[in-house]
Amino acid sequence: MEYYMMWVAEYNEAWRDRGKQSVNICENVFFSAEEEVSWNVAGYLLAWRVAMAPEVGSVEYSTRQSWYILKTGNETDITIQFLKEQLYLLEKGGSS
What we know:
mainly alpha
């Protein structure tokens, strides 16, 4: 859980820093689709690690596009859905 919270803090700090550089509050914090997908995948993997802990029932993980409920039993379906979204982001060049 500690590493996931560190990742969340880092993402939030990057979002705040980027927001200071732009007048558009909705602007994406990432400079490329590859960077966005890398952060999404890192967060997704960390969220799954937390979700697999015996004392955790499920974890909500979100990207700019979707929300995912990570819990034992839906590993394959939810991961395929997540990966398809990431492929789409790469193909279209990001979410901004």
